[in-house]
Design a protein that fits this description.
By secondary structure, the chain is an alpha/beta fold. The chain has two domains: 36 residues, no CATH class; 161 residues, 3-Layer(aba) Sandwich (Rossmann fold). Strands 3-2-1-4-5-7-6 form a seven-stranded mixed β-sheet, with helices on both faces. This is Class I SAM-dependent methyltransferase.
């Protein structure tokens, strides 16, 4: 599951027993050698799906981590590329990988931007936000976009009920809930709290018009539905 360059089981345990911010600071130098980094296959597929929606000028990667999504912005944006994250360690890695990007340390629930961006993206971060925090997150992204700006992110199809992936995600969330009930500060990371119907409603409440696009390079499921959708939320 992990490369030799990745973290040890002990290091992952220490991270999981830390706060979210400190945990990612500890993991940052080895994060890209874990399966938690957004895959190049997904990044490439999202880039190909976004390209026809442009042109875009400036772009923002929300919760940019080590900067995997900044490469998508560079591919589809002609102007300024920026990333925001609250982990100093993750931003340091992003700065090494993308020296020309504007990187800002801030909480995504309090983004420090006015309406400055044409496109905002985010990859793999939404499990760190409780359902009741999602409206605040979407409202802050909305405020950071210019009129007509786009907030886009991939949302894989849910695991089939009863499948190995379904029980793996269910088990992970259960372990995290037990951990957070017993230890403080909490480490918020849940895989099953970001449901499309709820997310769409919260995006619309924040002022977005929402459409869904199939991420065709990732293929389709046995029933013909997309394996992954791109949520495209436009600011009016």
């Amino acid at each position: 599951m992990f490369s030799p360059q990745g973290p040890s089981l002990r290091e992952l345990t220490v991270q999981a027993l830390s706060s979210v911010e400190h945990g990612y600071d500890l993991l940052a130098a080895r994060f890209d050698a874990t399966p938690f980094r957004t895959s190049d296959r997904l990044l490439d597929a999202v880039t190909r799906t976004l390209e026809p929606l442009g042109p875009f000028d400036s772009g923002l990667d929300v919760c940019c981590g080590t900067g995997a999504g900044l490469g998508v912005l560079r591919a589809v944006c002609a102007g300024r590329v920026a990333g925001v994250d609250f982990s100093t360690g993750m931003l340091a890695e992003a700065r090494r990988a993308h020296p020309g990007a504007d990187l800002v340390r801030a909480d995504a629930l309090a983004l420090p931007f006015g309406p400055a961006f044409d496109l905002a993206v985010s990859f793999g971060a939404f499990g760190h936000f409780l359902p009741e925090e999602q409206h605040t997150l979407f409202a802050r992204v909305h405020a950071s976009l210019r009129p007509g700006g786009t907030f886009a992110f991939p949302l894989p199809a849910p695991a089939r009920v009863g499948s190995r992936a379904y029980w793996t995600l269910w088990g992970f969330d259960t372990v995290m809930r037990v951990r957070n009930a017993l230890r403080r500060p909490p480490f918020v990371m849940y895989y099953r709290t970001f449901r499309l119907a709820d997310v769409r409603t919260r995006l619309e409440t924040a002022g977005f018009d929402v459409t869904l696009l199939p991420v065709e390079p990732l293929g389709r499921r046995e029933n013909g539905s997309p394996a992954c959708r791109l949520v495209v939320a436009r600011k009016g």
